[in-house]
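In response to reviewer comment 3 from the previous cycle, which asked for concrete evidence that the modeling workflow produces usable outputs, we include below a single protein chain processed end to end. The sequence was submitted unchanged, and the resulting structure tokens are shown without manual editing.
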Amino acid sequence: MFGSKPRIKLILASKSPRRAEILRNAEIAFEVQPAHVNEARRLRESAHTYVRRLAAAKARAVAEPLKRKKQHAIVIGADTVVLAQGKILGKPADVKEARRMLRLLSGRTHQVLTGVSMVSLPGGREIHHVETTRVKFLKIPAADIDDYIATGEPFDKAGAYGIQGIGGRFVTSIDGCYFNVMGLPLARVWSMLRDAGYANTSPGRVWSALRNLGSHAL
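The workflow returned the following structure tokens.
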């Protein structure tokens, strides 16, 4: 339509199925374009600085070619780590590392930090935030740790566990956003999207609008 604003599409710069699931279940329309960046941690870099930097790098990596094409979009980048006993835990590389991480978490409280960055296009405005959730684990017997590792669930998750899966049996309490532990703080993301001027056009919203039109026509 003449004079109408271009539709702003939302792009998730992540291949994480859990982040996609969070947005999908919240009926937020989006596309996936995974970012490819160097995720190595810098010397003496804090967990907060690390996740913020990587989230921004991922969002910018996907946004840059779209910006050159003057596309209208909002790109979301995110990165999650677990901080336990002063140690930053990413995804375990093998069984030995997964066992070490779970022993470190056992019977203690740790923090989950997720950096979230948004780049609005074509202007290039950036919004950044780091969300923190405290998670308490029960004391996990060695046999339970080995059984959990054998399921394969720990290997693609920061801290070697998934709160939404089998690993949830070890969580006694959380202080903060549950979805942050999964990898994307939903309420914070929604607030940032609204601040960036995003208007959702999910299938659920379209269906509701069509249903309302039908009721008015009767």
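The first strand starts at residue 9 and ends at 12. We consider this sufficient to address the reviewer's concern, and the full set will be provided in the supplementary archive.
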